[in-house]
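B., you asked whether I could sanity-check this one before it goes into the benchmark set. Here's the sequence:
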Amino acid sequence: MMLQNSGLVLEGGGMRGVYTAGVLEYFLEQGLEFPYVIGVSAGACIAASYLSKQNGRNKKVNIGFVRHPEYISWKNFIRKGELFGMDFVFDEIPNKHVPYDYEAFYQSNSEFVIGTTECETGKPLYFSKKDYNENMLTVIRASSSLPLFAPTVEFKGKHLLDGGISDPIPLQKAEQDGFKKNVVVLTRNEGYYKKPARFTYFLKKKYKEYPNLCETMINRHLQYNKQTEMLEEKEKNGEIIIIRPLEPLKVSRVEKDPLKLEDLYLQGYNNAKEKFEQIIESDTKELEKVF
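And here's what the prediction gave me:
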């Protein structure tokens, strides 16, 4: 069931991304496809298995491996300067432990845009299928590279970091690409507003060669909160459909408790089920406008 007019926009959020995994698992079970998908950070990671149509893969990876020492640990950070084991997550898991279906992904008719942050400019840099070709996982790795907790990723001569730094909820990019009706999956409760960044001294010291990046990171809360206000207004006007956690969040960005993660995953699954008919009706009404 390929929708005609609706895009899918996915926020990041580290391990809170298991909520998005639950949402997309329900979509997979229903055979629901979007012609356009855009995600940043964990949102992009979760989207990849959705687009390759691998039922259960996100749960197997993001919950099943969460206590593996190479997946996420301070030991990783001490040894390699990265909290998540990036080689393990973006090489060993998809190529050895839980094989990723690259062929199915590239055969998908959906466009998949991945948002990153360019270190030199501090601005968002987006990559579509024609941009990354067979290097999709490299770009997702860049989009998921948390500042201070992961090294930058070089791709096509650009130094890249987490896409959520510069464009945490990339709805405007989806609209610029022609999708005025969108389903937005958030990983925070309604009413959440981001506070100013801490550790600004360390940011400026770590990224002293990237002053524009530092400025973007320091002002990230302003960008996030502005986007949140815009989303709330668009939701009230019926322009977008938001799926977000309804129960108070108990999962942190670096959560390692599989029971908490399982619960959040099921929340996402059930919330998607509740919104399913609304999504179909919204896309159908938009199609009727065309004719």
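One thing to flag: The radius of gyration is 18 Å. Otherwise nothing jumped out at me.
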